[in-house]
Design a protein that fits this description.
The chain has 25 helices and five strands. It has 645 residues and is mainly α. The protein has a five-stranded mixed β-sheet. Strand 1, helix 20 and strand 2 form a beta-alpha-beta unit. Helix 2 runs antiparallel to helix 3, helix 4 runs antiparallel to helix 7 and helix 11 crosses helix 15. The chain starts with a helix and ends in a 5-residue tail after the last helix.
């Protein structure tokens, strides 16, 4: 066994070695020295303590908590950014320092949910993991996210860790996400370094990538997309190696398992990875004059296409049913937005809550800085890839345009066009989520392109502290703007309960009610409730919740209808509902997400409390639980009854 492990490590070693050709201006980077890392590590620890104190201040409703929290993030990123901009920093220090930034941002996740899951998407996959633990089988239907059991890569690893260590799914999930984040950052650094031939560009590219709206929080959530991003960047790194030193053993031992794992983990990431690899291979084929060694060029994209689309077809094409309507609505709203027929008001939630002015300014400034970086770096990145543009002599015929040195860098530079598209989608209600999820892929190009611009234009090899401080400030703004645009001002949680506000709606009383159902009603009862309580019922109560996505039944109209009549009785009969969990707090506030149950028309005023009291006067409906704010009613007898109410 030991010999086999050593063989595997020897095969994987070329992926992580530093055998890149450094230009003269980067020669000093090769020497090993820890430099500022110890001091930065100590300082980062202080900033995390301040962030934790800000979270506690927010819980106690101090007005300065939000500013204090974001100031701690700025204090974490600014010195790291200044150090990464500086020329001549040793490679080892760059790697350690960029990992330090990743650890610091991940600690914000632990501050956000220290003892249990609170984010919406984490509950979706927690329910799938619980089903695997309960049944010992895969593909158990999950009404909260029907496509989750079909892509169970994340849950397989988490449940295996839980069984081996006897730790909870929450603890195993956090450990898994931490390990994924660290390996992701290292692999992304190596990928950027190999493309550019510079550890300086590699570290700056990773730091710019941290400005993606999903990096700090969404991509560290216990979600299949978080694990899939790791598989994607490993696949890109292996593909880069395959294009230079053909190694079929490396392909079979490293690449195939990674691509297979990606295909069964997340649909969208698998498809995008396949398209990226295909585009890189197509550009490489067009660039080369000889047809020799084409097998090593196309091996990765062919395998990626077979795995991703093969798994989707074998499982019945669930991605088409899931992603089709989402992209359709997003494109429709985006076209309306471009026609000035409507859109989403930036920084204003559906319940009318407005973000603080300083955060709005910071977020807009981060977008402006990124656009300025792309505008001044786009052609420089192409020139770095060997494309004859701008500084080179233009070719005399079209064949001259097919001469470049790095097809992968060309593709990543073109990928930056996805960034303005993501911004446009975020200006719409239906497209906001799509725009946010495009971010990790768009920033693959944005990161290295902006980094090349910094090294070749903005900073060059200047040792001016003022210039490095200004660039460090800009990068700090980019990271803070990305965090806020992706998570809003609710990353600290809310000191008070908010309706339909995801993590701000998860609180002990609702968890206690969901746990009560498991203890006294048993599991697998069919429940209907609002967006937040159904998450808790599925995760803590083990109940079978009714959703529009899975059951094609919207019982929100039944719950909010003024009376209980034949139409309402028929609706609960068709959905085979056993219980309703009624939360009277829904009548006190507008929903932050715009809807109380499933995505649909935006509510402009809360419902009348009397609509929930109507069930008290219906024969056959009995109240089995009441904690003052929440009631659980048994509708099974009324559902099966044919008598008039």
């Amino acid at each position: 066994m030991k010999g086999r492990l050593q063989s595997v490590f020897r095969l994987a070693r070329p992926l992580f070695s530093a055998d890149v050709e450094y230009p003269d201006e980067f020669a000093s980077e090769v020497h090993s020295d820890w430099g500022w890392f110890p001091a930065l590590a100590l300082w980062s620890g202080v900033t995390i303590v301040v962030a934790a104190a800000a979270a506690e201040a927010n819980r106690r409703e101090f007005s300065f908590a939000s500013a204090m929290f974001y100031a701690s993030i700025a204090a974490l990123i600014f010195p790291i950014a200044c150090r990464m901009v500086w020329p001549g920093v040793p490679r080892a220090e760059r790697i350690a320092t960029i990992l330090l930034a990743a650890v610091g941002l991940f600690c914000l996740r632990l501050i956000h949910e220290p003892i249990s899951f609170v984010d919406h998407d984490a509950f979706l996959h927690w329910a799938t993991a619980n089903d695997i633990m309960r049944t010992g089988k895969l593909f158990t239907p999950n009404p909260l996210l029907p496509i989750s059991p079909v892509y169970p890569g994340l849950e397989i690893i988490a449940t295996a860790l839980s069984e081996l260590t006897t730790l909870s799914i929450f603890v195993c999930g956090q450990l898994l996400m931490f390990v994924c984040r660290m390996i992701f950052v290292i692999c992304l650094f190596l990928f950027y370094e190999r493309l550019s031939g510079s550890s300086r560009v590699g570290s700056l590219g990773v730091l710019v990538y941290m400005g993606a709206s999903s990096f700090a929080f969404f991509d560290t959530t216990f979600s299949y997309g978080s694990l899939a991003l790791l598989f994607m960047v490993i696949a890109l790194l292996v593909d880069n190696r395959m294009g230079k030193t053909a190694s079929w053993r490396c392909f079979s031992i490293v690449a195939l398992p990674v691509l297979g794992g990606l295909a069964v983990t997340h649909h969208l990431t698998a498809f995008i990875t396949a398209f990226l690899l295909t585009g890189m291979a197509a550009f490489e084929v067009a660039r080369r004059k000889s047809t020799r060694s084409f097998g090593h060029v196309i091996a990765m994209p062919v395998a990626a296409l077979i795995f991703s689309f093969g798994w989707s077809v074998w499982t019945g094409n669930p991605s088409e049913d899931y992603l089709g309507p989402v992209f359709g609505h997003a494109i429709s709203e985006a076209s309306r937005f471009l026609s000035f027929e409507g859109g989403r008001i930036p920084f204003v939630a559906e319940d009318g809550t407005t973000a603080p002015l300083w955060l709005r300014v910071t977020t807009v400034l981060s977008v402006v800085l990124l656009c300025a970086g792309l505008a001044t770096s786009f052609f420089r990145a192409l020139a770095r890839a060997g494309v004859p543009v701008l500084w080179d002599k233009f070719p005399t015929d079209w064949r001259g345009f097919l001469k470049w040195d790095s097809s992968r860098l060309v593709i990543l530079t073109l990928v930056t066009f996805a960034y303005p598209i993501s911004i446009m989608l975020r200006m719409t209600r239906a497209g906001w989520e799509i725009g946010n999820r495009i971010g990790p892929f768009a920033f693959l190009g944005v990161g290295i392109v902006v980094a090349i611009g910094i090294v070749t234009f903005w900073q060059k090899d200047s040792r001016s502290r003022l210039r490095s401080g200004l660039i460090g400030t800009a990068m700090t703004i980019i990271v803070i703007g990305g965090i806020f645009s992706g998570s809003g001002n609710y990353i600290l949680g809310s000191p008070r309960y908010r309706v339909s506000a995801d993590s701000a709606s998860v609180e002990p009383m609702a968890i206690s009610a969901a746990t009560w159902t498991r203890q006294w009603l048993g599991t697998r009862n069919r429940f209907f409730s609002d967006r937040t309580n159904r998450l808790l019922l599925a995760a803590y109560g083990g109940q079978q919740v009714v959703t529009l996505l899975y059951d094609k039944q919207d019982l929100g109209d039944v719950e909010f209808s003024p009376k209980f009549g034949p139409l309402e009785r028929e609706a609960i009969r068709e959905a085979s509902v056993d219980y309703f969990l009624l939360d009277f707090r829904l009548t006190e506030q507008l929903p932050l997400m715009g809807f109380y149950f499933d995505p649909g028309p935006v509510y402009r005023e809360p419902p009348d409390p009397q609509v929930l009291f109507k069930f008290n006067n219906v024969a056959g409906i009995s109240r089995v639980f009441d904690n003052g704010y929440q009631s659980i009613i048994n509708v099974a007898q009324a559902r099966d009854s044919t008598d008039a109410p």
